[in-house]
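Problem: given the chain below (120 residues), write out its structure.
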Amino acid sequence: MINSKATGQPFWLCAGITLISSLVSATYSIAALAGQSKIDTYALYAASRSITLLLVVLGCVLLRSRSGVIALAFVMALVQSFDAVIGALSHDTLRTYGPLFTALFSFAALGLLLRRVPQP
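Solution.
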């Protein structure tokens, strides 16, 4: 069983990158809503999911839940990967490479956390 409470540099690195990733995602979805002259239902759905992910990541970090951070780091790395694909399809360099590097850092930090054996 995975240790429920985690500490150590790999945990905090992975948790920090995941938290930043979810914060950026939530910020962009809220900014998209604020920039709309009329209410866009799809933007509302995107914001609700981004804000929910941010709150759950925050909870897992505060509880020092290793398994929670692992799961959410993987989810946020996938979200950033798909954001990079969307940026590439829209021919936007910043929206391609920003999420791409964030996804790569997330996967790398997740790998470091998974390699470390939790202490019983």
